[in-house]
Design goal:
The chain is mainly α. The chain is built from six helices and three strands; from the N terminus they run H-H-E-H-H-H-E-E-H. It starts with a helix and ends with a helix.
């Protein structure tokens, strides 16, 4: 039971890393466009704040929680009489399936947030956008603009 919870946490961290990398990928294209503008700069965005403000995020998080509970229940039911190796294999299989389902739910959110960041950066003539946690000094905070862009 603890193994599946640990695996699900690990998969969630991996999904978050993929999410972060996906948002950083458009930076070279934005940099090339921004070179033509006189006021090319660096922006930053608080992705956690944007994610928390995403329309419908509460329902998505509830769906994720339901998926995790179902996966735990499935593991508990199927692993009762299995030897350790078989339990580990079952745990891995369920964790992979769970990760695929989570990715399918969260990918559209990631895509929309990435597109909103790109659009705001282009509007403001920013050469690059980084995560707010990485900023020590300077830059343009575009968090509120990205949240506004995502609102229906």
């Amino acid at each position: 039971m603890q193994k599946i919870a640990k695996a699900i946490r690990m998969i969630s961290l991996i999904a978050a890393a993929v999410f972060v990398c996906g948002l950083a990928a458009p930076a070279p294209a934005l940099a090339a466009k921004a070179k033509d503008k006189q006021e090319a700069g660096i922006g930053y965005v608080n992705r956690q704040q944007v994610f928390a403000a995403y329309p419908g995020i509460e329902e998505l998080m509830q769906q994720l929680q339901t998926l995790r509970q179902a996966a735990q229940k499935e593991y508990d039911e199927q692993s009762k009489d299995l030897p350790a190796e078989a339990r580990q294999a079952l745990n891995d299989k369920i964790a992979r399936t769970e990760a695929q389902k989570e990715d399918a739910l969260m990918q559209p959110v990631s895509d929309k947030i990435g597109a909103a960041i790109q659009a705001v950066a282009a509007d403001k003539g920013l050469a690059a956008v980084i995560d707010a946690a990485s900023v020590a000094y300077g830059g343009t905070d575009i968090t509120a603009d990205v949240i506004a862009k995502l609102k229906p």
